[in-house]
Design goal:
The protein is α+β, with helices and mostly antiparallel strands. It has a single domain, classed as Nuclear Transport Factor 2, Chain: A. About 40% of the residues lie in helices and about 35% in strands. The protein is built from five helices and six strands. Strands 2-1-6-5-4-3 form a six-stranded mixed β-sheet. Strand 5 and strand 6 form a beta hairpin. The protein is elongated. It starts with a helix and ends with a strand.
Length: about 150
Amino acid sequence: MKLISIHFIMLVLLTACSQPIFDEAAAKKEVLAVLKSQEQGWNSGSIEEYMQGYVKSDSLRFASGGDITYGWQTTFQRYSGRYPDKATMGRVIFSDLDVTLLATDAAIVFGRWRLQREQDQPNGLFTLLLRKTKNGWRVVHDHTSSAAK
């Protein structure tokens, strides 16, 4: 009986040791790279490049200003309607980014956004839920708010 117990314990230890170790720092870096890429896309004047950070799915949920939008295409159209040109888009800056990993394939990001435009500088907060997909980390839920003017 002792021999069976020792073999069982050894099997458990070997199995545990053979599992790949999750690199939390690397995962956080990958998540932040998505936001950096979105900043670059926005600042180049391309809503389409900015939208590459979102999952291309009808399940994408974007909530802002009391409205909820579902789906990548609908969210793209919403952004395109609100920001029809580079001047309206301005330059976006994400700051105070805080990444919390929920699992090896899920993360929450809290942060601030600010648009630098010629006439104004709207700003606010956002909370994003990202999932690791076959195409890398992508935003699946976005809740963005604007600060009072």
